[in-house]
Amino acid sequence: METQLPDDFRCPISLEIMSDPVILPSGHTFDRVSIQRWLDSGHRTCPITKLPLPEHPCLIPNHALRSLISNYTLVSPSKLQPCPQPQILISSLTSQSSHVGTKLNSLTHLVRLTKHDSGFRRKLTELGAAPGVLKCVGSDDPSLQEKALSLLLNLSLDDDNKVGLVAEGAIYRVIKVLRFGSPDCRAIAATIITSLAVVEVNKATIGAYPDAIQALVWLLISGKGREKKEAATALYAICSFADNRRRAIDCGAVPILISLLDSGLERAIEVLGLLVKCKEGREEMMKVNGCVKVLVSVLRNGSSRGVQYGLFTLNCLCSCCERLCFEAINEGVVEICMGLMEEENEKIRRYTSSLVQTLRENHAFG
Q1: What angle do the packed helices 86-94 and 130-137 form, to 10 degrees?
Q2: Does the domain at residues 7-75 carry the CATH identifier 1.10.10.10?
Q3: CATH classification of 87-242, choosing from 3.30.70.890, 3.40.910.10, 3.50.80.10, 1.25.10.10?
Q4: Share of the chain above pLDDT 70, in %
Q5: What is the pTM assigned to this prediction?
């Protein structure tokens, strides 16, 4: 279906069909997720024109384009191949007489239809699709489970669906997959946690759920590359809620994250940047041998976003421990900071200045 859609429907960054098109002050349209990721990385120029943007650029919803895309995708599938009515597809997921192949076929149709169409996603939840999808998520068949997780992820993309899916019991099913699913299923399950945690009330619900944070920390230990990255992203999403930081710390997240950061998983520094905000997090980081060395390495080699979090984390630690100040000096942090003072990124310059001031106040250097 995607090959039939006009190129103007595609985000210039991701090249995917836009689900939430927004207009930059430069006048160009991007998918919200893609341009937000661009801005969060510290960029303050338009990806197309390269012209400078305000420090906090306004993202204006492009309702006209969104409506065009929605209408086009609703019409296009019928031109390509006949598709059963949504209610019939949903019924096949819950029917005891439906074979695995029938359910898999229904899920495949629904995944395709919900990928880019927010209106169709809302319609499915209104038709009561959640129980059937969650039942398939709990299936022992890996193919059925993976396809059901993909559909659950699509449904969770709409803010209007997030609280309802949690109320339907999505967290219980997802946590079980984090523990016992295939590698691909575990990665999707962690991504679903991230998506559901966009809504503030869900952060508290997820964190308070038995074994939720523990399962994500376990995935950091036992998972492969993609699983570890998605687990770290999910922890970052839910640890913006203060109570969840202590829960993550109690589950032993700090030394694991520092080890992963040392092994090249930069997403770990973002989580550490949240955990360092509480006393328990700082105390745990101080116990880890080589913590400062790893953080200084991020300042030296990390991305713009990684450097921001590295500076913030190191400053929080040095502010409450003179010993760590001297460790940072010995690792060459002053020379690095002198170079970062010239960075274009305003946050990096500000965090660098704060770290230098902290070192001076602790008499680590003159």
Answers
A1: 40
A2: no
A3: 1.25.10.10
A4: 94
A5: 0.76
